[in-house]
Write a structure and sequence with these properties.
Structural class: mainly alpha
Number of domains: 1
Number of helices: 5
Shape: globular
Number of strands: 2
Largest sheet: 2 strands, antiparallel
Strand content: 5-15%
Radius of gyration: 13 Å
Length: 99
């Protein structure tokens, strides 16, 4: 995946997180948690970019960095989970660009 494609994908995931969605890789399936209207709105994008999203979710670097940063922002920073996740994706995007 090119740096530009990765940046685009991370922007999509950050927007999903901003809408309150949480994506979880479960085998070859992506489980989506969050408000029903947001799930319905993002489902076509998730289906279209499933392979890329699964690769990102399975990525040890991306997953670990994301979870750590989201937890810090939520529990130590007092942010709502959706806001903490959006902030975490911005941080992960910067990390992955350095690789």
């Amino acid at each position: 995946m090119t740096a530009q494609a990765l940046t685009s994908l991370l922007a999509v995931v950050a927007a999903m997180a901003g809408d309150g969605l949480v994506l979880i890789a479960d085998g070859d399936t992506i489980r989506v948690r969050g408000p029903a209207p947001a799930r319905a709105r993002w489902l076509p994008v998730i289906r279209e970019r499933k392979t890329e999203l699964l690769a990102l979710l399975r990525s040890e670097l991306g997953r670990e960095a994301f979870e750590e940063r989201a937890a810090i922002a939520e529990y130590l920073g007092g942010l709502p989970r959706a806001e903490a996740e959006a902030l975490a994706w911005e941080s992960v995007k910067k990390i992955l660009r350095m690789k």
